[in-house]
Each structure stands twice: as structure tokens, then as C-alpha cells.
Amino acid sequence: xxxxxxxxxxxxxxxxxxxxxxxxxxxxxxxxxxxxxxxxxxxxxxxxxxxxxxxxxxxxxxxxxxxxxxxxxxxxxxxxxxxxxxxxxxxxxxxxxxxxxxxxxxxxxxxxxxxxxxxxxxxxxxxxxxxxxxxxxxxxxxxxxxxxxxxxxxxxxxxxxxxxxxxxxxxxxxxxxxxxxxxxxxxxxxxxxxxxxxxxxxxxxxxxxxxxxxxxxxxxxxxxxxxxxxxxxxxxxxxxxxxxxxxxxxxxxxxxxxxxxxxxxxxxxxxxxxxxxxxxxxxxxxxxxxxxxxxxxxxxxxxxxxxxxxxxxxxxxxxxxxxxxxxxxxxxxxxxxxxxxxxxxxxxxxxxxxxxxxxxxxxxxxxxxxxxxxxxxxxxxxxxxxxxxxxxxxxxxxxxxxxxxxxxxxxxxxxxxxxxxxxxxxxxxxxxxxxxxxxxxxxxxxxxxxxxxxxxxxxxxxxxxxxxxxxxxxxxxxxxxxxxxxxxxxxxxxxxxxxxxxxxxxxxxxxxxxx
Length: 515
Description:
It is an enzyme of class 3 (hydrolase). It is found in: Periplasm. With about 525 residues, the chain is an alpha+beta fold. It is about 15% helix and about 30% strand. It has 3 domains: about 60-80 and about 120-295, Thrombin, subunit H (Beta Barrel); about 300-400, Roll (Pdz3 Domain), CATH 2.30.42.10; about 420-515, Pdz3 Domain (Roll).
């Protein structure tokens, strides 16, 4: 089950392990099992090095931080589904039925004039104060999503109403504000999560299952985790116990600085099994600053569609390793629509930062200021080049980007000519364009048929796809394709990199073995 809010959601389980972004309902757990921890040290054979010990106590550290951590309670009015015609009609029962009295009592309580009856649902989460003078509190977006009312509960039992300053669904961060004159606030600061090492001790404070002020300790288990929850995943993984209700709470280092915002766990049961994830401070702090200043995010935008660089693609481009992000298409009207970056280029550095894989690029671009001129290092036809790009704003272009964000799939068709790597090819002309419904803007060589069990079929190439270029050289006829494949074989290449276009011009790259 996947939970993105604190409201109960029932879905069919499709896997034994669930990824849970967790805000808790107000109910406490039905069963609590208390187990005694093993106190005897476990001997380590053949260990000559002195072993570092965990912190003797975190009591002083927790005592100085716990007042900055808050519980967040939300309520939402949920209306009945559209189409509900009102009260449920009482079923007909035989005269004298023993169920008549039950039905009369239950259905008689309904309001006959009430259509689409509504009810309130509540959820609980955590948060922490980052600015005591301004009353600024940080939490997860899924904790407060769709809430009608937000209430902040402090460690001393006092409560304040909160208003939403801004939220970001892409990173699951929300910023709240309370009146600092009504309660003395204690704030905490963000640390440098980039310096966090695997094995460092960390402490989580939050509101699991409604138990406010709960402190747990663990270590950093891993860094830079991608759990496929958003475009900028770069989570800190920890084994510090975090559960439903911990969402939005801080993950502290041993200096008392916030290095992460607890957000999700992986669990087969919904409870902690020692695999939790926190948004790193280096990502969160920039988002929070923008939400405070503008009430929204203002991310940099490069205007390209990208895909991973596989070993096959790297080999076909003459690259020594499969690093970087392959440009699969350029968005019209974007910052690089002027031709500074082309489809088929591989971006390996952006503004001085390495792009090791396809997930790195969206994150470093989004963290860059709108309007900044940056150096982008690309690999084009086997050679490195540096181009300068002035970034646009992602939020201004998202509607346009969505139109270009589909990876093209071919359409069915028929007809003719040269056979290469299991594909039958034909020239693009008015007749073939009309037959396959191909846009006038698409240029290249038409694939009219794909043989079953061929290398092309195995890569899901279909009749109606158009070959735009091969190994970054444009082709315009079936003979061009055959000649280019033959040249690559003569050069000792094992794979051919094809840029394919759908009938509407959406691009994707495919590598085909030529053995």
C-alpha cells in the first residue's frame, strides 16, 4: 500500500513490501510489544583495531532540541461522491422479519434532505521550527495536503492554528506559519548534509502513531537513495526508527543540526523495519527558502528530454563509460532550442557539477537560479564540447514540456523496400506520410515492417517509426541507412545508435546489435 496522506486509504496490495510516505491517523496502535534488548557485547573475532562506540547518551542533545519539534494535526471535510442521490433507501424485508427493528433504527437516522453527505477526517504528522521570530515551521506536503485546518501542537501541550505559506509536491515539502507572539518558539538550524557519511549517528524526533516527542537513534545507512517518489530523489537512508506520524519531522546529526526531513519508510507491515528515508538538507533548504520568499518554487529549466546512457549507447558513441544524460529531444521554445544542445548529445557536466547518471541532471538544473548562464559540457560525436546556456524557469514551461514529454511509440503500417537489421525501410513522401499519418515536420527514413524476433522487434521498434539519424549522422533514404550500418561494422562497432521519431515527431534513442 502507498500512503501519501494521513487519511485512511484502502487499496489492494500488489507486493509484499510497501513504500510508505507516512502521516498517521490519530488512533494509537492496538498492540504494543515490549522486548528486552541484548546487553551483552558481541565479540568480534580477529579484530585488532579499537572499535568506535556509539554515543554514551543523547539525553542532553534531545533535551535541547525537543521543544523545536512539533506535532501537526490536520482536518479535512470530505464530501460524498458525485452521483450520490442522498440517503440509502431502506431495503424491503418480509413482514414480521426479526431484522425490521434493526433496519428501522439504522435507516431512520438518515437525514432525508441531505445529498452527498460529508464527514471530517483527521491526520497527524510532525514538523519543526526553523525561524522562531517569524513563526516558520517545516513539514512534509503530504502531511497537510488538502487540509481545511492545520493545528500545531507544541511539546508543552499548547496549540496554535497554522497557515500554509507554500508547498512543493515534487520534493514533498511544505512551509507553515504560526503567530510567534502567541507562543515562545525554539528553532533549529539546517546542517550540511553533503558532509554526512555512511555510519554517522543520527537522531529522529517526531510524532509516531500520535506519541509526540518520541526520540529514536540510529545511523546513516546510505546516501543518494532513489526510491522513485519524485524527479529529485536523493534521500538519506537511516535505520533510526521512524513510523507513521514521523513524516515531516527532523533528522538530526550529533551536533543538533537538521540534516534531513523524515519522509518515507519501506515496510511490509507499515511499521519501522529500519529502512527509513529523509530529504537531505542540501535539497530541502533551497526549496524552503523559495517557498518562504515567493510562496512557490522557481526552478531552473534546460528544456531537454533525456534518457539513460546504457553501455550499448556509450559504446556506439565511442564513450569510454556509460555516464551522463543522453539528450533525446529538445523542447520548442526552450533555452537550448537555438541549437546550442542537440538531440544525441550526452551531458556529462552542468555548471561545474558532474552528471554521472540521468537522475543527476534534473536535480542540479532545478537547484540553479532562473536566468543564470551556465557552462554545460557535452559529448558530441565522440568529442567533448562546452556550451553556454541561460536557464529558463521550469514552472513557466511545464505545460509545454508535458506535450513533449512522451517517448514516441510507432504505429502499425505496411509497404516496401530495403531490409536492414530486421526492418523494412522506405522513403518518406506524401503517400507514405498519408498512409502512416506522419507529421510534415518529421524527416528521415520510414520503417514499414519489423520482422518478428529480430533485434529491432526486441527493442520495440514498430512499423511507422522513422529513423532520423544513426550514430549522430542524419539519414534520408533506405540506402543511407544500409550504408551507415555497414560503415559502423567496418569501424568495428558492435552496436548502432538510432534516433527514432514517432509520427508526431517525439524522439527516442535505441541501440541495435549489428552482430
